[in-house]
Amino acid sequence: MREPTVVGTDSNAASAVAISPPPPPPQALLERLKDYGQEDAFVLWDELSPDERDFLVKDIESLDLPRIDRIIRCSLRSQALPVAAIEPVPERNVSSVEERTMEERERWWKMGLKAVSEGKLGVLLLSGGQGTRLGSSDPKGCFNIGLPSGKSLFQLQAERILCVQRLAAQFISEGGGSAGSVTIHWYIMTSPFTDDATRKYFESHKYFGLESDQVTFFQQGTIPCVSKDGRIIMETPYKVAKAPDGNGGVYSALKSSKLLEDMASRGIKYVDCYGVDNALVRVADPTFLGYFIDKGVAAAAKVVRKAYPQEKVGVFVRRGKGGPLTVVEYSELDPSLASAINQETGRLRFCWSNVCLHMFTLDFLNQVANGLEKDSVYHLAEKKIPSIHGHTLGYKLEQFIFDAFPYAPSTALFEVLREEEFAPVKNANGANFDTPDSARLLVLRLHTRWVIAAGGFLTHSVPLYATGVEVSPLCSYVGENLEAICRGRTFHAPCEIAF
Question: What element of type H or E holds 460?
Answer without folding.
Answer: strand 457-460
